[in-house]
Each structure stands twice: as C-alpha cells, then as structure tokens.
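task queued by scheduler; priority normal; single chain, no ligands, no partner chains; default sampling; output format set to structure tokens
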Amino acid sequence: MTMKHLLRFFVSTILLASGITLTAAQDSTLSAACSSSKASISTGQTEHTLDYDGLRRAYLLYIPASYDPTQPAPLVLSLHGFSSNPLQQVSISAWNPVADTHGFPVVYPQGTGLPLRWNSGQSFFEGRRGTDDVGFINALLDHLTETLCIDTTRIYVSGLSNGGGMSHGLACELADRVAAIGGVAGAYSTRECEPSRPVPVIAFHGTADNIVPYGGSEGGNMTLPSVEIWAAEWAARNGCADSPQPLERVGAVSGVAYEDCDENASVVFYTVEEGGHTWPGGGLLPAFIVGETNQDVNASEIMWDFFMAHPLVEE
C-alpha cells in the first residue's frame, strides 16, 4: 500500500469509526429506483446552460460510464477559482477519475464577470452586477435533481481559491441541501455565517500559497482569515471538541481532525508544507505563478472518503 493510499485508509477509518448509520428514510432513498425518463442521460463530459435571474449561466456536466441512471447517486459540484473556468477546473481538481471509480456525476458550474469569478462574500470577487450565485447554485441543484438520478442526502460542494470561498458561502446559506463541503487554497469570507445546521468541512492549504496566504491577509478590497483560525471557527460552529486530533503525516502533508461534533459534523484541515495555490494530487500548474503542486496525496480522493462519511441527515 502506497503512502497516498495509507492516508486515505487512515482518514476513512477515523470517519467511519464514528458509528455513522443511515436513517430508515435515507435507506429508502438509496434503494429507490428512478424513473425511466432519467435513464437517457449521455455519458462523458457535456456543456450546458441554465437561465437564472436574467442571465444564461453555463456549466459542464461529467457522467461516468459507471453511473447507474436507475439508482440514486451522490453529486459533487466543483467550483473554479478567480479568473479560471470549468474546463480548467476539470483538469486542476481531477474529480473525473474519482467519479469513474465510484459512479457519480460531477458538475463544474461557471461564475460570472470578466474575469470569471464567484460572488462569495468578498467585494473583490463580486461578479457581474452583484450576481446571486447562491440562488444560481440552488436553482442548478433543482434542475440536476430533476434530470438526474441523485441521492439528495449526498450533495457535496468543493472548490479552489475563490471557488473554495464560494463553497464556504454555500455551507453558510444552503446547509439544508449541501451535505458537506471541501475547500482547497480557499479565499474564505469573513462575513457572518449562521448555517441552519452543522456542516462537515474538509480543507487543504499550502504554507507557500502566495495568492491566498496561509496566515490570512488584511487591507485593500480583500480581507482573508488565517486558514487555521477559519477551520477552528468551523469546528466551534459545529460544536466540536476544542482540541483537534493529529492525523498521520504523509510526505509534506499533515492534518488535524476536530471530532465529537454536533450531528457528526466533523472538521478536517490539512496543511501542505511548501504547497502553493494548487490542488494536491491534481493537475499541474505553472509553478512560477502558483507554486508547487503537491503529489503526496490526492485531495479529491480524500474529500470523497470524507463526503461519503457525511450524508445529510434529513429530519
């Protein structure tokens, strides 16, 4: 077993050991077959649009060949960073190979403005005319759950940089739909966050990130929190134990897990020593611009294990 797979096994063991079980309602949802009208979805990566709030919004949809259109599947949204786009996010995040293995759809929505960005709560990132991106994502989820066979207790959002900040915003405002979130090199907002329930969170951040500093930043149009403090605040918000438990180090990647949280909403935070503004285990980017891309772990694979341990518990 490689060190990369050892970390996945270690984290999965911790999460699953917490005694997660499905309610009868969830078990019924998982076993229910979808209507035949949802069985005609083409596999592969396709481009789509959705009209919302007077704008035609774009997104990429990836349906792996392993997807069973008759059985409810998890759904993962992957949000691109500032000045990036969905196609780049496909390469950067490497979510599609994880989807191939586990048979779930991945959606890559597109922000607005020039350059493209998400209105994640920072004035610097405000998209075209103050676009309601929370409303757009909510409408997109409505559309996807109508057209695909989706397990609505397993909808997850992940993102890079500004997309990570948007994931944070969605956890704050769409906690009734988003089961858990993941962030990489996230430009997280310092705005008020009062989710309707505790939301499980997993995040990765490099210590050599020169775009979204690990220790935070102040001044100008963008004030960003220290990512360690941000993670600790989520743990406090979720009612977790004060002292996080260390995770086994793999190469340059160390981590902590906040446990004993309300509604099993654990918070896991990974520090990537000398890591840049990049997605660990993902597509390589020019190091002279964004820094080094760590390959000791695969962030998407680790997120997937975390997500599967944290379904939305419907009341």
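post-processing summary
- Residues 72 and 150 are 5 Å apart (CA to CA).
- The chain has a mean pLDDT of 88.
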